[in-house]
Design a protein that fits this description.
Distance between the termini: 41 Å
Structural class: mainly alpha
Helix content: 55-70%
Number of helices: 15
Order of helices and strands: HHHHHHHHHHHHHHH
Number of strands: 0
Shape: globular
Largest sheet: none
Radius of gyration: 20 Å
Length: about 300
């Protein structure tokens, strides 16, 4: 656990949101492929809370009691996620690993969101919300694929599926992704609120963008997860956009954010307007995304 919590304390001392988020990823970095296995093996179910609490006390930037408790709960939940992932990699729970991992990662995400309302996490920590939302969507898609496979093989019986195994109701087929979209929506709304607070209480936003994950990095996750082609529900995306519009006066201009985030944001806003038959506004946003999209970004074709 030493490596992860050394990085945690350094991120807290520097106020580096991206470094902090790197301690909460479910994938070991290429330069240290055994990091997460060592992290998990350094404790056990009966001692994990005590172990993490001890590591959290070793900091040059003392945490408040509420912050310390919140981060303890987050890293305990994170430890459990890593355990589920490792068990899946070794062949245990192979048939339902994705659902178990999704539920465990959802707990991490919910605890992070709770940290802003109950433990006053600084707005600079917002990249953690982005990382949580990013992988929540990935695990939700995997869980839906797992569920669909069970239905097709007859492991799961679904009412109303009288026409054959290939007919899977849209809601059931994407149940985990829809659940993820709701959670990411809450995360995006929290990000919008925190950015407003950040701009009122900190130095100029040009410097802050180096350490924060602005709402536009969280919102694309929500727009993506709520994509109508997958969920048949666009209201989830619109909720995010309404929150962003309400906070526009407190936000830096869109051009201040990384181009990769702008492209994603403009594309999905354009898709939403297109589905609403607002073709002029759709063309405006889609054209903007196309014009600034890097020529090497082949995934955006």
């Amino acid at each position: 656990m030493d490596t992860i919590f050394q990085a945690f304390h350094l991120a807290q001392y520097q106020g580096s949101g991206h470094s902090l988020a790197a301690t909460l990823t479910p994938i070991s970095p290429p330069h240290d492929p055994t990091l997460l296995r060592r992290f998990y093996n350094d404790s056990n179910g009966s001692a994990i809370e005590t172990d993490i609490q001890r590591y959290l006390r070793m900091t040059q930037s003392p945490l408040s009691k509420a912050e310390s408790t919140a981060w303890r709960d987050i890293y305990v939940a994170y430890w459990k996620v890593i355990g589920e992932i490792l068990r899946a990699e070794t062949g245990h729970h192979r048939d339902d690993w994705a659902i178990k991992v999704y539920e465990a990662w959802k707990e991490v995400t919910n605890l992070l969101i709770r940290g802003y309302s109950h433990a006053s996490f600084g707005a600079w920590t917002m990249p953690c919300l982005y990382t949580a939302g990013k992988y929540l969507r990935v695990f939700a898609i995997k869980a839906d694929e797992e569920q669909a496979s069970k239905v097709r093989t007859g492991e799961v019986n679904m009412e109303g599926d009288a026409l054959g195994d290939d007919i899977i109701p849209v809601f059931e087929k994407n149940a985990w992704l829809e659940d993820a979209a709701r959670v990411i929506n809450r995360s995006a709304n929290r990000g919008v609120q925190e950015m407003g607070s950040l701009l009122y209480n900190q130095p100029p936003f040009q410097n802050l963008l180096q350490g924060t994950g602005p709402p536009q990095t969280i919102v694309p996750n929500s727009l993506n997860a709520a994509d109508k082609t997958q969920l048949n529900s666009i209201s989830l995306s619109k909720n995010c956009l309404r929150a962003l519009e309400a906070a526009r006066a407190d936000m830096p201009p869109l051009e201040a954010f990384p181009k990769s985030h702008i492209v994603t944001f403009q594309y999905y806003v354009g898709v939403i307007h297109f589905l609403d038959e607002e073709y002029h506004r759709a063309e405006e946003h889609l054209t903007s995304a196309w014009q600034i999209c890097h020529k090497s970004a082949h995934r955006n074709k």
